[in-house]
Amino acid sequence: MQNHPTVMSIAGSDSGGGAGIQADIKTINALGGYGTCAITALTAQNGLTVTGIAPTDPDFVRLQIETIEKGFPVQAAKTGMLFSVPIIEAVAHSLAHAEYPLVVDPVCVSQSGVRLLEDSAIASLANSLFPLATLITPNIPEAELLAEHTITDEEDILFCGEKLLARVKGAVLIKGGHRLQDDSVTDILFQKDAAPQRLTNPRVRTENTHGTGCTLSAAIATGLAFKKDLVCAIKDAQNYLNHALAASYTPGAGAGPVNHLWNASVWHTTYAWIDFCISSYML
Fold first, then answer.
1. Active site residue 212
2. pTM listed for this prediction
3. Is residue 17 part of a domain?
4. Catalytic residue among 16, 214, 222, 235
């Protein structure tokens, strides 16, 4: 029997299809997992902006998580947009005794600049979910907000990383993609009793970056579901995202999504070429 570990995404729905639950499910499935979800909010959005948010009733968020756990052998989970204190508390209560890895992507602001986390929820996120997290994956603006410290250089990143590390069960990955002046992207991993580790990849120059944070965290969670060690899961996720960015496209107005199925496209092209060669030989 094939191994398709179940990964649960707890996040908001993106009506534009490029981020949130939609990005997570595509990523999990593309990497060989089986994606399930608990939807924390509906959003009306496209590649230009978010025009509306309808949060899910917290009790129903809890019911989704508990129902998934009863029906599937969840082997990893990730959180994305949680929006409010009641939803964060519902998620934390449901995951308090989970034995599988948890990746927390502290989604605070959309790519178009719309707040996806209420101001009152920032402390709740840190106090309720961070102590349960195997890994948290803030980008630079989120790290600044959570650590209450402005980042202007790598020394500031190191300060914020260590400050956040003290609040999580596991590790912290501060993503460097927002430092647009660089030709490479360096994410810095902070782990207990270890020196910060720099994980660098070449920057892909594209405007189609919608859903990159969701995609990376979902890919890391999938790697952990396959029992990879944390560093291996992160490196494999970075590689997957880099290829997805390189193959990105623009289906509508504004910022397009990364191409979550780039690896499926590669296999399709390969099989088509093999089929062509076989057919030509038989002729």
1. yes
2. 0.91
3. yes
4. 214
* pLDDT, tens digit (0-9, with 9 covering 90-100), for 31-63: 999 999 999 999 999 999 899 999 999 999 999
- Tell me if residue 211 is catalytic: yes
Query: Can 170 be counted among the known catalytic residues?
Result: no
Of the candidates 212, 222, 235, 256, the residue annotated as catalytic is 212
Range(s) of the domain holding residue 162: 6-282
Question: Do the domain assignments include residue 1?
Answer: no
Mark whether 213 is an active-site residue. Answer: yes
What's the pLDDT tens digit per position in 109-146? 776 666 778 788 889 999 999 999 999 999 999 999 99
DSSP assignment string, 28-53: HHHTT-EEEEEEEEEEEE-BS-EEEE
**Residue whose C-alpha is closest to residue 38's, from 51, 16, 57:** 57
* Total of domains in the chain: 1
Q: In sequence order, which ranges of 185-255 are alpha helices (DSSP H)?
A: 212-225, 230-246
Could you tell me the CATH number of the domain that includes residue 184? Answer: 3.40.1190.20
Determine whether 214 is an active site residue.
yes
